[in-house]
């Protein structure tokens, strides 16, 4: 299916909001954090072939930015990756692999809504997590922060694939986050508990419909206009859930439904 062509005024709106212009391209970690705070949530290293805002595209400052095959030699990709490392180290915004394994940044104000949709509470852990996942989590709750190799050894999850599945599962549940990136003597992440960095946001209780509405609001505020399935692809939501969020915005008067599955900011 060919990509949907958006009206030029919508593309221009996104250029400004998502920093897809040379004049507003991202150069520093502070600028990146401000960008994340404005858009609410964004992918890390996706390019123009994927919907939604992206740190990589904002670093390029181009609407048509495409990730090259040899990313190691590309200065823009390298700069975006190093900015990601610095943002993780600073710990002012949320970063992790969330729904469908998408590496995303989430502004603190949006954490309660993401947690309401994808978070796993303690009483649900035994039912939802595998034995390997629970073993990794038990060690982290005791030690608070550990490198990949030490955490794998201490948890007893010797199989590398099983260990990484456990880490990904805990990230998707918004329980574990990378807290530091280390390159010497070899590349590794330090892993910590999300509740240590964002205790207030993760303790806040939000009902599911409110969370769907606020995630939809946040995306539409930045996108200006959303096509069928676009919100679901960007966030990892089921399409019916994305529709619930968008229709709640229409009912509130924040958005208008242009056609089935297509919504636009009322003020536009």
Offer a few descriptive terms.
alpha+beta, Arc Repressor Mutant, subunit A, 3-stranded antiparallel sheet, 14% strand
Strand content: 5-15%
Instruction: Kindly report the spatial arrangement of strands forming the biggest sheet.
Output: 1-3-2
Rg over CA atoms: 19 Å
> What is the H/E order?
HHEHHEEHHHEHHEEHHHEHHEE
Total separate domains: 3
Largest sheet: 3 strands, antiparallel
Low-confidence stretches are none
Nearest-integer average pLDDT: 95
How far is the first residue's CA from the last residue's CA? 28 Å
Q: What structural class do you assign from the helix and strand content?
A: alpha+beta
Instruction: Characterize the overall form.
Output: globular
Number of strands: 9
Relative helix content: 40-55%
State the helix count. Answer: 14
Molecular structure report:
By secondary structure, the protein is of the alpha+beta class. The chain folds into 3 domains: about 10-110, no CATH class; about 120-175 and about 175-205, Orthogonal Bundle (Arc Repressor Mutant, subunit A); about 210-265, Winged helix-like DNA-binding domain superfamily/Winged helix DNA-binding domain (Arc Repressor Mutant, subunit A). The protein is about 50% helix and about 15% strand. Strands 1-3-2 form a 3-stranded antiparallel sheet. A 3-stranded antiparallel sheet has the order 4-6-5.
